[in-house]
Amino acid sequence: MTDIAQDTAGSAIGGRVKGISPGVHTTDEARKRLKKRYSMEARFKAYGIGAIALAATFLVLLLFTIVGSGLPAFTYNYVNVPLDLSAEKVDPANPAGASYNKIIRDGLKAELPFASDRKNRRVLYSLVSSGANVILQKQVTNDPSLLGDKGPVAVPLSDFADLYVKGLITEQTKTLPSSAATVSGTEGLVTVTAEQPEFTKILASLKTYYEREIELLAGKIEARGRSDASVTSKITGLETRLAGEKDPLVAQRLTTEIEGNKAALDKIKAALEKQKAELATLQGHFDNVGKGGTLNANMPSFFIEVNGGTIKAEKVTPTSVTGTAFIPLASQAAVAAGQWGIKELETPESFRKFSDKEIAYTDYLVAKGSVENEWNSIFFSAGASREAEMAGIWGAAVGSFWTMLVTLSLSFPIGVSAAIYLEEFAPKNRWTQLIEVNINNLAAVPSIVFGLLGLAVFLNVFGLPRSAPLVGGMVLALMTLPTIIIASRAALQAVPPSIREAALGVGASRLQAVFHHVLPLAMPGILTGTIIGMAQALGETAPLLMIGMVAFIVDIPASPVDPSTVLPVQIFMWADFPEPAFQQKTSAAIMVLLGFLISMNAFAIILRKRFERRW
Q1: Per-residue DSSP letters for 418-466?
Q2: Domain extents for the chain?
Q3: Which of 587, 174, 152 minimizes the C-alpha distance to 372?
Q4: 538 and 411 Cβ atoms separated by less than 8 Å
Q5: In the structure, what pLDDT confidence band is assigned to residue 17 with cuts at 50, 70 and 90?
Q6: What's the CATH code, domain 388-611?
Q7: Does the pLDDT at position 1 exceed 50?
Q8: Where do the ABC transmembrane type-1 domain residues begin and end (predicted)?
Q9: In whole angstroms, how far apart are CA 425 and each of 22, 49, 145, 527?
């Protein structure tokens, strides 16, 4: 009887589910709701994992981009040049008064004696940094043992020469022909003739150039043709209006407008005819490109390296190349297959600021083993400079140090004192509640507002010096105070009341209980909040821009009142410079700043883990 009743009850509720007691999610509707809930939870979990994965992907991409762009800036290329530092050139009694620029140029001329005329020497001198003489002067002044020597001395290359050696100016492709070649001449115009059609790749590049130019010119002709038709139609309309116009003043205005449009039409037709002639010429070159052609600066450059020399290809046929020998050939001897090469520079010369002749001279120095890649000490020891190769972060780093020192000296004692008073001594009334609310609100105020406050009060009212770490530290201290106060109060609240009660119970005063017992136990949390606040201040830019710390400062600041800048502002300024070397230094400086920030946050975590006590 009981079994029958149970079966009847089971049927009444939709049947019993195996493993689940009667009445618990046993109906079809309940099972559907349960399945829907599990599906929602699974989707929510998938969305969370996807969001984390997407954020991690963007973070990795950002770090990869910064590190990839910044790593080359940590090294620099120097050229070893034989410099005459004898007593005739450098007075041992006054080494700083020598003409080091002339000494460096004489050494370069000795390294590349074939760069004899004025134009070639100008190209040669441009390979070395414009500040190389200053660096050499410092080396000789600091190390008098260099005097009297005529051996090689490392001199920094220019920023573009350094980028080229690092492979950041243009991509290069070198091929070794499979046939022998003969050479006519060693200097000036030289012709290289191959036994087989080895220069088809150059002709293919020339054909691609002609195709691109024909397409662009055809588009311009089509657009100018539309302008021709538009102006012609406009003239026709004006002439029709003029024919029916009876007012002489309006007729005169229409006549003047028609004459102006006809003059414009004549210019359009003349330009159109000129472009059509250019198109016909280009089409003729394109049709006969298989027989040969002339290269120009708007297409990839090609070097022929043979017999120790370098020839820039200017005219080409399938089996021969004629061009200027940037590096003279050692001889006119015939060369066997595989003993000469064709180098392609993918970026056209007109699209880069490093000429083909500069590339040839740099390759010559690299082939001689005169160029060495060394740790870029200038980047870590120099201040700001308009020359990319002479610019460094030391001035900004020292400025950041003085600024953070002022910030810490002001914000830590004031912030901790305010937190102790509000948490331990202040009465709980409307005034203290108002103060607490405003402190919390100040933590959310945009940082540039503090910069405006510093500009209005510290500079305009008190007349403190602009661009000084003293003012920057005061502004950042105002910005950091809410963070330190909130963190310090949280650390004080975390100390159990029993500590206070025990201290008071043995006869300590309220002040002694706080400073002798509560504060030491809360100090790890207070220091953690302080370090995080300082890390936030170290990465700020906007408030410091408002007080003038964006100024170009060359000298290293020796005190908090000297003009200075900071690392974030230095990064901001470098990012605005167009030179590619400054873009590298920007990424490198970001890496240095991130290193400081990560170190400070890691120190805060270690401090918390090491001294934190769980009550």
Answers
A1: HHHIIIIIS--SHHHHHHHHHHHHHTTS-HHHHHHHHIIIIITTS-PPT
A2: 2-70, 75-165, 205-289, 388-611
A3: 152
A4: no
A5: very low
A6: 1.10.3720.10
A7: no
A8: 397-604
A9: 61, 46, 68, 21
